[in-house]
Amino acid sequence: MCMMKQKLRDAYARCYYQQSGFPRKVLSDDAAAVMLTKEEIADYRYGLAPYSQAQIKKHVRDFNVAQVIVTDAYVSGAAMVEAIHGADRMVSVGGGYSTLCSRLAAAKISRYEIFDIEDADILEDKYARLERVGAATEGITKIPLEEGFLEKLRFNKKMFWDLTGCSDLKLVQELGSRLTYDSAVVFVYRGEYLELEKMLSDWGFRIYEYSSGEELETRFFDKANFGPVQYQLKVEREMNMVLAVKKP
After folding, report:
1. Running DSSP on this structure, what letter comes out for residue 26?
2. Domain parsing of the chain, residue ranges
3. Ordered mean pLDDT values, 10 residues apiece, the chain (248 residues)
4. How far apart are CA 87 and CA 57, in angstroms?
5. For position 59, what pLDDT does the model report?
6. pTM
7. Which of 5, 10, 174, 206 is in the most buried spot, having the most CB atoms within 10 Å?
8. Contact yes or no for 174/141 (Cβ under 8 A)
9. How many helices (H) and strands (E) does the chain have?
């Protein structure tokens, strides 16, 4: 239940970003804008919409809006690129209330099999919400995040794994022994680059792209941040986005 509450906070961050006055949005996510009820939104806003500059800046910081949105934008782009480059399966692990799987299903990429792996209670709640707002849910395979979930998947094709909602590097290590050549994983890392590079190489991966928090902020928010100061998003500097691909 605590995990659901935290992931609902992230859902609120997405909702707030879509509904509020950010001048240039880096990601359009119609479902995220309406997944929460008015009562839930009021609860997160403590009954008072943040109108002043100071209130809005605090709200953005407290609900981790920059990190949530930059992660969604990065992974969405990577998922589409991997589809173009021949990935046949997309797997999201621990994504909470992210609408990535729904948006990919709506894009109708013919060969893309989509798997959403999350705690069973979150999956049930999330897809009830998506169906309520008319978002795409057809063609998505939902798998409870529990011991042995990897055995429910086939690893005979090129895959793209979104692990940004999963902080366990042991899963990356396990995937290194299962994934086919050129399959890709994306995850958030807080640590030293050289240490990560060696670990991934030992596990059968090479780093394709490594983006620091500062680089992510420049890439996604520089042009968007020309608006009012209260809506300028700053990404945590210790946050690094890693896209790694399986070596031959």
Report:
1. S
2. 67-230+234-246
3. 86 94 90 95 74 83 94 96 92 98 89 94 98 96 97 96 94 98 97 96 98 95 81 92 97
4. 39
5. 87
6. 0.94
7. 10
8. no
9. 10, 7
CATH entry 3.40.920.10 includes domain 67-230+234-246: no
Tokens standing for 201? 């190489």
Count of other CB atoms within 10 angstroms of residue 34: 17
Cβ atoms of 111 and 86 closer than 8 Å = no
Q: Which residue has the tokens 């590079």?
A: 197
d(CA 116, CA 58): 32
In the prediction, which pLDDT does 1 show? 53
Please work out, in degrees rounded to the nearest 5, the angle formed at the alpha carbon of residue 93 by the alpha carbons of 69 and 246.
100
Tokens of 62: 């407290």
Q: How far apart are CA 104 and CA 108, in angstroms?
A: 7
Rounded CA gap, 10 and 96, in Å?
Answer: 8
Residue the block writes with tokens 């042991």: 170
Helices (H), the chain: 2-19, 30-34, 38-44, 53-62, 65-84, 100-107, 120-132, 169-176, 193-202, 213-221
Tokens at residue 171, please? 């899963």
